[in-house]
Amino acid sequence: MSTRTNFSPKVRGHARRGDDPDALALGEIVRTARIGAELTQDQLALASGVGRDTVIAIENGRGTVGLGKALQVIKALGLRIVPQERG
Questions:
Q1: For residue 62, what pLDDT band results from cuts at 50, 70 and 90?
Q2: Where in the numbering of this chain does the HTH cro/C1-type domain appear (predicted)?
Q3: pLDDT on residue 6
């Protein structure tokens, strides 16, 4: 019989969500575009030349992904970034 008393669910490291509103918004756009293109995260990673963990990090809004890798994913989806001043 187990004597374990802590049954809290483990949070998978790659499932953590970021806290930056801009990164979260970008992640939603990327996820929506990927699903609309009927691509899996693996397929998008392969098409963009990045690892699946990078796609997951972008979709979860984590700001740890470098700009170059994020741009690779964005371009593979046929998207582009248009800088805009905050108002």
A1: very high
A2: 30-84
A3: 56
Task: Give the C-alpha separation, 69 to 54, whole Å.
Answer: 8
* Cα 38–Cα 59–Cα 64 angle in degrees, nearest 5: 145
Q: How far apart are CA 57 and CA 7, in angstroms?
A: 27
Structure tokens at 8: 């809290």
Q: How far is CA 39 from the centre of its chain?
A: 14
Phi-psi region of 6 (alpha: psi -120 to 50; beta: other; left: phi over 0): beta
- Which of 81, 80, 76 has its CA nearest to residue 41? 76
How many C-beta atoms lie closer than 10 Å to residue 39's C-beta? 18
Element (H, E) at 46: helix 41-48
pLDDT tens digits along 31-41: 999 999 999 99
